[in-house]
Amino acid sequence: MTLAPQELENTASKFAAEAIKLDSQGSHSSAINSYQRASEALIKLVQIYPEYKLNRVYLERASAYQNRIKAIQMANGLLEEDRRPNYSVADLKDPLANGAHSTSINSKLISTTVPHKINNPSVNNNHNIKNALRDNPQSQNTSTVQELSKELENLILKEKPKVTWSEVIGLEDAKRAIRESIVYPTKRADLFPLGWPRGILLFGPPGCGKTLLAAAAAAEIHGYFINIDAASMMSKWLGEAEKNISKLFTFARALHEKERIPILLFIDEIDSLLGTRNGEVGGEVRVKNQFLTEMDGVNGKSKDSFLYVIGATNKPWSLESGFLRRFQKRIYVTLPDMASRKNLFRQYTAKLAQDTSVKVDDLAKLSESYSASDIKDICQSAQLKVVNELFEKGEPTDDTILPRELNLTDFKEMFKVRKPSVSPDMIRAYLRWSEQFKAL
Predict the structure, then answer these.
(1) 411 shares a domain with 275
(2) 315 with 391, same domain?
(3) Residue 434 placed within a domain
(4) DSSP class per residue in 178-238
(5) Of 95, 94, 91, 110, which Cα lies nearest the Cα of 40?
(6) Do 327 and 404 fall within a single domain?
C-alpha cells in the first residue's frame, strides 16, 4: 500500500482506540464522536481503494463502530424511536462483490447524527435498570451469557466433550496432576481447605495429547470445555484484543454462575498470546496485562470457583516468568514411551485388516521418538498404500472387493518415508525447561 491508505488506516486506529477508552470511562458523547470519525476514515479508505483485499474487514469494522454508536444512543435515550437508524452488516456493500471498481457505500452507514448532550432522565432510567439487574442476578447472568455468546460465537467452541481417560494413552504423570487439580476438588471440595490450582500449563511437543487431556478432564467432571485458539483473540485494531480477553473471561464466569457446573477454558497456542517478542508494541503489553488481571481474578477472588484456565504451548520458553506463577501446575506432556506406543498401535491397527506378521511390539520399537499423532499417521499411510494398490488395478465397483491385508513390510516402508515430527534438539530443549520450571 502507498502512504495515503496507511495514513487513513492509522487515523481509524487512533480514533477507535480513543473511542474505546472514552466509552469505558462513560464519556458517551465524546466516544460517539470518535467512533464516527473512525468509521468515516475506514469508509473513505474503501472508496479510494475499492480493490484492496482488506476492504471487507474495514467495512465490518465500520459497521461495528456504527452499531456501537446506535447502542450508546439508544441506551441513553439520545434517539427517538422514529429516528433510530435501521441498518446491519447486510446493508454494507462489499466493493468487490459486484465488480472490481464499484465504490458504492450505503449512505446509512455515515448518516447518524452525533449528539453533544446526554439528558439526566435517561441516565436515571439506566441507573434504575442497573439496580433491577443487581436485584435479580440470575437474570443478569443469563443476559450476560446470551449477549457475550453472540459476540464471541466466532471465537468460542462451547461443548461437552465425549472423551474418556481410556482414550488418553500413557501420560500417567499428566493425568494424575490434572485429576488432583480438577477432578478431585469437584467431587470433594471440603478436602481442600487451602484451595486448589486453577491455572494449568500443558507444554511439550505437538501431537502428544495436550488438548485430549483437557477434554477428558472436562468430560469426567461433566463440565463445559471452551476451546480457544489464542491467535484468534488478537486483532490489528487497537484495544480490540484486550477487549476480547475481557469478554472471554466475563463470558466464562457468567456461564459458570448461570449453569453452576465446572468450566474449563482451554487456550491453545498460548505462547502466541503471552510470549515475548522483539519490538513489542503497546497493544501487546495491554493484552498481557489484561490476561494477568483476569488470571489473578480466577486464582484469588473466587476461592470456591470451579473455573479453570488450561494453557497449551509447544514453546514454553517463550512465556514470561510473570505468567508462570499464574499457572500453578506446569505439566510436561511427553512423547509416548514404549508401553504407550504399543497401546497406540494396538488401538489404531485394531480397525485395519492385517496378517500375522504385524506385531505391536515390533512397531513400537520402530517408532521411537514418534509422537502419538505421528503413529496415527503411520497407520493411516499404511492403509492408504494398500488402498492405492487396489485402485491401480482398476476401480473396484464391487463392495466385496477389499484391499489385501497389511503386513510388517508395509509399515517398515512407511517408517522410511515418514520421519518423526519432533527432533532430538527439541526434546532436549523441553527437558531443560521442564527441569527448571515443571510443577506437578
Answers:
(1) no
(2) no
(3) no
(4) HIIIIIHHHH-GGG-TT----EEEEESSTTSSHHHHHHHHHHHTT-EEEEEEHHHH--SST
(5) 110
(6) no
Q: What is the CATH number of the domain that holds 117?
A: 1.20.58.80
Q: Which residues contact 400 (CB under 8 A, 6 or more apart)?
A: none
Same domain for 285 and 167?
yes
Task: Tell me the C-alpha to C-alpha distance, in Å, between residue 438 and each of 67, 167, 411.
Answer: 47, 25, 36
State whether 326 and 346 are in the same domain: no
**227 and 131 within one domain:** no
Global pTM value: 0.62
Do 285 and 164 lie in one domain? The reply is yes
- Judge if 124 and 230 occupy the same domain: no
Q: What is the DSSP letter of 167?
A: G
End-to-end CA distance of the chain: 50
Report the 10 Å Cβ neighbour count for 333: 25
Instruction: State the CATH number of the domain containing residue 238.
Output: 3.40.50.300
Q: CB–CB of 274/294 below 8 Å?
A: no
The contacts found for 394-402 with CB under 8 angstroms, 24 or more apart, are 402/353
If you ran DSSP here, which 8-state letter would residue 317 be given?
A: G
* In contact, 253 and 140? CB cutoff 8 Å: no
Whether residue 118 contacts residue 29, with contact meaning beta carbons closer than 8 Å, is answered with: yes
From first to last of its 440 residues, what are the pLDDT tens digits of the chain? 444 566 777 788 888 888 887 777 777 788 888 888 888 888 888 888 777 767 777 888 888 888 888 888 777 665 544 444 443 333 333 333 333 333 333 333 333 333 333 333 333 333 433 343 344 444 445 555 565 555 555 555 555 667 788 788 888 888 888 888 888 988 888 898 888 888 889 999 988 888 888 888 888 888 788 887 766 676 655 567 777 788 888 888 888 777 778 888 888 888 877 766 544 545 567 777 888 888 877 766 556 778 888 888 888 888 877 788 888 889 999 899 899 999 999 999 998 999 989 999 999 999 998 999 999 999 999 999 999 988 888 777 777 788 889 999 999 999 999 999 888 899 999 999 999 888 87
In Å, what is the CA distance from 110 to each residue of 43, 62, 106? 9, 9, 8
- All three cell numbers of 184, joined, read 478431585
Examine residue 142 and state whether it is found in any structural domain, yes or no: no
Number of domains in the chain: 3
Task: Give the domain range for residue 371.
Answer: 338-421
Please answer whether residues 49 and 36 qualify as being in contact, where contact means their C-beta atoms are separated by less than 8 angstroms.
no
**Do the beta carbons of residue 222 and residue 261 sit within 8 Å?**
yes
**DSSP result, 269-296:** TTHHHHB--TT--HHHHHHHHHHHHHHH
